[in-house]
Amino acid sequence: MPRYKLTIAYEGTDFYGWQKQHPPTQEEPMRTAQGVLEETIRHVFREPVRLVGASRTDSGVHARGQVAAFTAEKELDLARLTAALNTHLPDDLQVVKASIVHDDFNPISNAIAKGYRYRLAHGRKLENLPPLFDRRITARTPHLLDVAPMQEAAQCIIGEHDFASFTRRNHGRESTIRTVHDCTVTATTSRLLRIDVSGNGFLYNMVRIIAGTLMEVGRGHISPTDLPRIFEAKDRGATGPTLPAEGLCLMWIQYP
Amino acid sequence: MPRYKLTIAYEGTDFYGWQKQHPPTQEEPMRTAQGVLEETIRHVFREPVRLVGASRTDSGVHARGQVAAFTAEKELDLARLTAALNTHLPDDLQVVKASIVHDDFNPISNAIAKGYRYRLAHGRKLENLPPLFDRRITARTPHLLDVAPMQEAAQCIIGEHDFASFTRRNHGRESTIRTVHDCTVTATTSRLLRIDVSGNGFLYNMVRIIAGTLMEVGRGHISPTDLPRIFEAKDRGATGPTLPAEGLCLMWIQYP
Questions:
Q1: pLDDT, average across residues A123-131
Q2: Are residues A44 and A167 in the same domain?
Q3: B9 reaches A (C-beta below 8 A)
Q4: A87 and A137: one domain?
Q5: Predicted confidence (pLDDT) per residue in A20-32, tens digit
Q6: Fewer CB within 10 Å of terminal CB in chain B, N or C?
């Protein structure tokens, strides 16, 4: 039976995240990217399938390069499959690409790197009109940020570190050591910036806490030279706030 | 009493166009950009105002540079006024700029030029995923378009012409002669193009019919050399379809 790998994009605004959720009572199931896509695949294949996603994006988080896989009995032409899925999918979720992969392809454990982008509009509304047409994919802060120290601090995040300070307490992970391959802050305009982070793996809320910590650096509340101390603290209290989901986008996932 | 000029941006998706509309029965008024903005101005000024807009954009049409004016008794600081309005406005409508103008400033009759952009994704869904995050401001056609003849035809639209073929029948205008200053077709990607049109005035649906006619050129149904004959016909039947509102954006309005 062929195993299919899908690359997926969605605007997270109207999804309760990636993961299917079963509300305790007999209410309507919550609208999730996995739920919507799995149902569409079943409709196209006319057989039950189980879809596994690489990354459990949170409610409101967007994706340009989410990856998911499923095994089906039918072998369908990939271009026709992509077209059929996109014809039936709602317009806030798209299958960007489909391919056939090895039987034991596991989108979670086979991933070797992921890239995220965080978009943040900063400064008071008076001089900072949030981007109108991109407002659903941009977070906002009323604080005007100084980008240069943020760029300096971003450099300190690159490398292998214990990211315990950059995830919630009681995260339930055995190890909080991760390697960040790249972390850059780019000023798109004087009031809009993006933070690009890539690495071999990410803890829960890690990118949003990195973004929140860099925001505190941009406000002058944290100095770039504080970063080593923040890593050493291994305490969520040492880092900045978890920035909102709407600014975050899963850009790509790399496989061998 | 000071007269205020506002430059306004909105995503037209959830507006029934610019113009306030009074449904015949006692239903809720329809949500229009003028209606929403006028109500917000009244709330901020705490006095009745009458807002006049430069361009009656249709239902679903977007704006980056709509202009409107009103006269009020109070004189408010312009930066504070902009901030106050934006604080109370919904997030799909923004006041980009406010200024004080002459008592007799008329946003309609004083306008000397306007610029529009039409965004069109083309080609079948199989090889043409519509732009996910810009889907609300982009129209789509399943036909794959050849951009070079469109660019050639666009050149023929520039200049002073009788645009009777480019507006609906029974338009009710005395003269259908207008001057188009610029008309360019740009391929943003291989499946996405934009048509920028500016001129001294536009007839009802004129930009959307120009876009539809250029689309027919891109499909090979109309040749760029047909354009003189199309102008001469002075007949709506000679031009292409009126493309959907969602692709159109009023970019700017120029005043002396």
A1: 72
A2: no
A3: yes
A4: no
A5: 987 666 677 799 9
A6: C
